Structure formats: C-alpha cells, structure tokens
Amino acid sequence: MVRSNVVVVTHHVASIETFTTEKTQLLQRTMEESDCYEYTQSKVIDERSLLKQVKEAADGASSIRNCQMKLLTRHHEFRSS
pTM for this structure? Predict the structure, then answer.
C-alpha cells in the first residue's frame, strides 16, 4: 500500500514538473516572439541593480549606526570615569 502511494505521488510530481516546464517554455517562446522577453530581462536586471543599491545603502546605514553606538558608549564611559 505504501509503495503504491509513493509511486502515485512520484508520478504526480513528475506530471506537475513536466506541466510547469512546458508552460514556462511556452511563455518564454511567446515573450520572445512578441519582443517582450528583452524588455522583461532588462526590467529584471534593473530590479536586481536596485535591490543591490538598497542593500548597500542598508549596510552603510548599519555601519554608521554601529559607529554612532560605539561613540555614544565611549562618551558615556568617558563621562562616568
């Protein structure tokens, strides 16, 4: 019983993967034929670039915040000594 269930599930997963692959290929072909593919690829690159810039800005802000906290801590240590 368990083996037959595993076979059925494996078959369903394979069918889903095949269906997904076929639909993805169809979508890609359609986009290429309609010149949308290059446009969407450029948008993906733009979004990745923007995300990278946001991450760099966040990292920079985090570094600044860490420096400010260190300075504040040292200031308090200096005042209390």
Answer: 0.38
